[in-house]
Amino acid sequence: MRPLSLTMVAFGPFAGKQVIDFETLGKNPLFLINGPTGAGKTTILDAICFALYGKTTGDEREGSQMRCDLAADNLLTEVSFKFELGEQHFHIRRVPEQQRAKKNGDGFTTQKSEAQLYKLEADGTEVPLVAAKVSDATAKIEEFTGLDVDQFRQVMVLPQGKFRELLMADSKEREKIFSQLFQTHIYRKIEERLKQQAAGIRKDVEAMRNRRDGIFQGADVASEQALVDEHTQLQPQLVAAEELKAESEQQVLACNQKLDKALQQQADLNKLNQLKAVSAELLSQQPHIEQQQQTLQLAKRAQLLHPLHQSVNARQAEFAQSKSALIAKQQQEQQTAKALADSETNVSQLPVIEGQILAAQQQLKQRQDLIPQLTEIDGLVAKLAQKEQAMQHSEQQGKGLKQQAEALSEQKRAAQNQLDGLKAQAAPLLSLQQQLNDTKQHLSIYQQWQSLNNEIANNLTKLQQAKRNGAELNQQHQALKITSDTLQFKWHSGQAAILAAKLNPGDACPVCGSLEHPNLASSHETPPTDEAREQAQNAEAEAFAKLNQARNDYRLLQQNVSNLEQRANELQLQLADVAKISFEELSANLAQISQQFNDAEKAQQQQAEQESQLVNMQQQEQTLTQQLEQVREQYAGLKEQMASDKGQLQQLKANLPDDITSAEELNQEAVRLKQSIEAEQSKLQNLRTEHANAQQNHAAVKEALKAAQQTQVTAEQLFEQAQAEFNTQLHQSQFVDLPAYEAALLDSASQTQLELVIKDFEQRKISNQANIEQLDAQLADIELLDVDKLSQDKAEISAKATLVLDQWQKLSARVQQLAQTQHQLTELNTQAKQLESQYAVVGTLSDIANGQTGNKISLQRFVLSVLLDDVLLAASQRLQLMSKGRYRLLRKEDRAKGNKASGLELEVEDAYTAKVRAVATLSGGESFMAALSMALGLSDVVQAYAGGIRLDTLFIDEGFGSLDQDSLELAIRTLMDLQSAGRMVGVISHVTEMKEQIGSRIDLKKTAMGSEINIVLP
């Protein structure tokens, strides 16, 4: 993660808006955050941490406590941070919870905390990722950076007074940090998965044991051997029981067959006795059947006289009916005579009713004459109500039109002010067009110039590298030259010693010719061979050739840099003062001018629209004025008409009777009179109709009475004739009198029933006799069996068979249970072996992976210990440099006491004492150097492993004041090396030497109105 810019508003000691553009400090800057105590140096780190995670670096203050007391009430406290993650750029904005001034009215309201996160595209557009929810923004940051707030504080920020925390963290805390940085969660998942699998196998084993115990308990055996023994013992018993069972079943079958035969014989005898009893019963019924046959014959004779007897009964009924009808007509004649007399009495009252109707009609006419006058009064009342409502409507309409006119006038004034503003905004359109063209041209030249500068920087880097390569090649050449010269010298010395050894006193020296040899050459070493000398000379010559080639390459690079600088200077002259600003600022200026030009162009368009709106408003104002005048005239006319109508109404009411006040009352009175007249007229008509009906009814009944008298005489004659004919036929028949005939008479159903009974009796008699003869033939000459004895024998044999069957069932069920149990145990034993085999692998792996064996180190902690060794190796290189070779960081390999996590604790090796001791024994300055080395080593290793987490930036808050001069210089040199390796390093310090050696600074000025920020470049 690399910061790009930080904007703070009313945050900490900063009362207004302060912006830090980190890109102006360079690509990989080493910069100092400098300022007096309380100016806000640490607040810059707090702002970065708060923007990312909503918490400060020290976590001692909440975001809601970071508002500046000097800030204006209408200024919202917020932090915006733009940063780079790999190739992607992001922008996050956070607003803490705070009290802010209300937008409308006085007082304050609570501003809730919020956060927005955007992804910055290459063209500068912002793509929203989180709209407002604080927790969502924090979760996204943790996802992108791979760090939570605590891990961010420990690996990217060394907060004031807390740099020892990273150094002093225990194994558990360091495991949490490192697992996130190196993405080793997969090993933790492996531990958990193995642990779960092992626990699952143990659970299965326990369940299997419980199941095995349950099987033994269910089978009522103590062990598997006891089960086998019992099964072996029961097998012969089961065979014997099966034989007894088969024998007893045969005995029961034979006994059942004999008993069935005896029972059948007994059933046949019983049936024969029953048939003989039925035969006797039928014989006793014979007289009754003969009597029924005689009754049937008499009924058939009586049936011949039945039609004549029915005719007599019909004529008798008609005669009785005619007598009843005559009596009814006589009674009806009496009733109609009485009704006629009553009707004549009512008709005498008709003149009185006619007089009442005439009086009511006269009163109705008087009331109806008043209707037009009352209708006119009601019309005037309705008109007055309508006009009063119309006056109220006109009054309200006038008020509404007046308000519309006032509002339109206010809108007109606002539109005129807006038009004036648009004219002022559109005025610089032409000049902005020229500025826009100039800025685009400058930006194009600037890009070319910047490209050349980048190329120059790359070539300068190559030049420095070539210089370093040349120095290294020169050193190599000098070393090889010394080696070659040394070998040459040793060879010559060896040759001199050889010559000296051959010289005798008085012999001339072959080199100088001297006869005296006061100091003969000697050598205790074997002179080098010619081959060794030749190899050394060749190596020196090859190194010298490489050195010359490097010098030529260096000169070519110098010439290339010179040419590029000349072209860059030409472009810089074209840019003039524009070259003093950054490309981002120039781009921002272009964007700003483009925006201003667009705003001016838009204002020009809006100006024409606004002028058109003003013309429309003036027309609307005239229309409203005309409408308001019309409403006022209408109101005055209505008021005058109401006064005239009220006078006319009073005059009409004066001519009315006192008991009539309205047309409605008069109408009700008229309706009542009409209803009364109609009722009397209806009564009159009903009386007349009733009298006429009474006369007609009486005359009709008298005629009907005469007809009824004649009908009775005729019916009596017909009855007497039918009676005489029936008596004649009855005397000629065999019946003595009418009762004898009636006694013999039967209906058709009864006759049919008698015929069926007689026929059924005859059939039963024949069938019963045939069955008796058949059974007599079957039972002749057979020996009868004793049913009681056979039943007793069956009971005894069945009882014995039941005992045998019960014994066999018990033995069979037990043997089957034991066999099934044996099968279940065999399956369980197979499964148990499989589980034991699985647990031998999985359980062992789980114990090892979860740190249950050996040094009690889990799989993830073992992996992290290897990674920690790499971190400590990189950290120790820097710590040895800063401590002048004294200290080296080591991982503590001894197991911790008890169950405490171990494997990731740190120790320090002291070269001065040759002892290893705890890191807690380091002094304040030594602890700072160790923590700084640890942070830098961690940054190197994390990025080297490319685990998705980039630690491109490090902020250090204080700690340098605890170092002596030499250690401080070494620490600064380490930070510079870190900068050269592509890191951004920000340092907060009061130490004067830091300010002298670090050229890039963020200076903070503390004032009574709040702190201010200024970026100082070398």
UniProtKB/TrEMBL annotation:
Record flagged with keyword Metal-binding: no
Biological processes per GO annotation: DNA recombination; DNA replication; double-strand break repair
UniProt keyword list: ATP-binding, Coiled coil, DNA recombination, DNA replication, Endonuclease, Exonuclease, Hydrolase, Nuclease, Nucleotide-binding
Single GO term (MF): ATP binding
Domain Rad50/SbcC-type AAA intervals: 5-242
Coiled-coil ranges (or none): 377-483, 533-725
Function: SbcCD cleaves DNA hairpin structures. These structures can inhibit DNA replication and are intermediates in certain DNA recombination reactions. The complex acts as a 3'->5' double strand exonuclease that can open hairpins. It also has a 5' single-strand endonuclease activity.
Subunit-structure text: Heterodimer of SbcC and SbcD.
Family: Belongs to the SMC family. SbcC subfamily.
Protein name as catalogued: Nuclease SbcCD subunit C
